[in-house]
Amino acid sequence: MCLGIPGKITEIYDDGGARMGKVNFGGIVKEVCLEYVPEAAIGDYTIVHVGFAITRLDEESALETLRLFEEMGTLEEELHAAAPPEMADQADA
After folding, report:
1. Which residue pairs, CB below 8 angstroms and at least 24 apart, start in 21-28?
2. Is residue 34 included in any domain, yes or no?
3. What is the pLDDT of residues 15-68, one digit of tens each?
4. Is 83 a domain residue?
5. Dihedrals φ, ψ of 74, to 5°?
6. How far apart are CA 82 and CA 44, in angstroms?
């Protein structure tokens, strides 16, 4: 399963001409491409799918969605599935 997961943008930077950022998903931080959401700023919440931020959303909706994913037990599973195998192994240690 591949879900669009909400996360909070904590850092924005340029990487070889691409607008990138660090996004926090309830304690798990991932590097994300922000090219599709040029209006996004640090502190905004965004939906991320396969490493790309695809839309902004309000904090209340983001936190409720994260809570539901955690209740279903899918949040950590989805975030580890998106990581390279060596990163998923480190996260489990």
Report:
1. 21/53, 23/48, 23/53, 25/66, 25/75, 25/79, 26/66, 26/70, 26/75, 28/76, 28/79, 28/91
2. yes
3. 999 999 999 988 889 999 999 999 999 999 999 998 999 999 999 999 898 888
4. yes
5. -105, -15
6. 21
Q: In this structure, what token pair is assigned to residue 29? A: 């931080």
Residue 6's Cα: distance from chain center in Å?
A: 6
Query: Is residue 40 within 8 Å of 53, Cβ to Cβ?
Result: yes
pTM here is 0.76
User: Which domain, by its residues, includes 79?
Assistant: 5-87
Number of domains within the chain: 1
